[in-house]
Structures are given as C-alpha cells and as structure tokens.
Design brief:
Length: 231
C-alpha cells in the first residue's frame, strides 16, 4: 500500500453562493448587463448569509465581476477581514435574450423572431453551451479551493452556472426544466473536497425566509416574471 500524503487528508470547503435579489423594476433578463445592483432586500439577504458564515473558517472570497455578485460578496469578506477577489469565470451565462423581457405570459414564445433561438434546449440554442459553463465554473471553483486549501472559500456566482456545475458533479443531465433548479437567491451550494477530489455536495438557504415565495425552487411561475433563464 502506498504512503498517504498530506493532500490526501486535506479537507477544503467551497461554498458557491447565488447573489441576492436585484433591483430590476422593468423586469428584463439582465444577464451580463452592467448597472444591475442588489435591491434593499438583496442587501439584507447578503447580510444574512454573512452572519450565517461568520464563524466558519473562510479564508478566500471571490465573485463574478457583475455588480450584484460583488455586492453580495462584500459583507461576507468584511466579516472575515478579507478583500473580494474577482474571477470572470463565475459570470452569468451568456443569453441572446439579455435586455429583453422573457417571462411567463409575456408572449415571448409566440414571437417568430425568437423561434430560431429555441430550437435546441439540450445545448442550449439561446445561450452559452452548458458544457462551456461546466468547464469555466469547475476551473474557478478549483482556483478557489487552492486559495483556501485546508480552509473554506466562498464563490459568488449566478443561478444557471451554479445549477449546471452542480448537475455535472452529481452526474445529472445538464438540460433541465428551469423551474426546478434548486438554487434560490442567496443560497449556498457547498462542495467539500478531500485533496483535489469532491467528496460531497450540500445545499442550504440561510436567507430562505427573505426570499419571495414565487422565487423559491419549484414555485408556480408568476405571470410576467422572467425567472426561468437564470439570474
């Protein structure tokens, strides 16, 4: 039997967090557009998660470059005396419907101009390929793991990339019903590593009581709400 190295026993925890609620009065799918900040409720969600993680051994905090992710990460980093690092690979998925309304009951699916983007849900045809999201998210999470080796890290990202990378790790198909993503606002999808190998995946919602009921996983869609394609 070979000798055991230190890295074989190292436990590192990476919490991949979805940002809090965003101020979006016109209800557009904001995607990667700049200028979308946390709402007052979103800031409360971020503070709640910071409180939840205050006693954890967090040594590294990193976020998507988008404002809502940076603002969500800020109170967590502050609680641990850290600066928020930025990793472009944690960004929201690219989407051709960015800047448009695309929700239940708004007629988007009946517009002929949109049909060409809806032909292949398995790739998907309306945006960044799922496998590309897996590659970049796994790389970003791996860098965070290395930065916090033996401790814990927090990566703040967005719903679709988080759900896709979790699905990959848990060996589920990547195409899915967007209404059934288990990735509520300000939720934590937690990957525990032994050395460089993921040994468990967890999920928690420290701010669940602050999340509007229609935005919880599995909730009935609300007419006009552009929930379905990630945030």
């Amino acid at each position: 039997m070979g000798s055991m190295t230190k890295s074989d026993n190292d436990i590192t925890v990476v919490h991949v967090m979805r940002h809090g609620e965003v101020e979006n009065p016109t209800g557009v799918l904001y995607g990667r557009l700049p200028g979308y900040h946390l709402s007052e409720l979103g800031r409360r969600m971020a503070d709640r998660v910071a409180e939840h993680l205050a006693e954890r051994d967090i040594t590294h905090v990193v976020a998507s470059p988008l404002e809502r992710a940076q603002e969500t990460a800020a109170p967590i980093a502050k609680a641990h005396g850290l600066e928020v690092a930025t990793d472009q690979r944690l960004i929201e998925a690219a989407n051709v419907f960015q800047g448009k309304t695309f929700g239940v009951g708004d007629g988007a699916l009946r517009r002929p101009a949109n049909w060409k983007h809806l032909t292949n849900p398995f790739r998907p045809s309306w945006g960044e390929p799922y496998i590309d999201q897996v590659v970049r998210m796994m790389a970003a999470i791996g860098v965070a793991r290395d930065a916090a080796r033996g401790h814990e890290a927090v990566c703040v990202s967005h719903q679709l990339p988080i759900w896709i990378v979790r699905s990959f790790v848990e060996r589920r198909r990547l195409w899915h019903d967007p209404r059934k993503r288990q990735c509520t606002l300000a939720s934590l999808t937690t990957f525990t590593y032994r050395g460089d190998r993921i040994v468990s995946v967890g999920y928690s919602e420290p701010a669940r009581d602050l999340v509007p009921a229609h935005l919880l996983a599995g909730a009935k869609p609300v007419r006009g709400a552009s929930k379905g394609y990630g945030a």
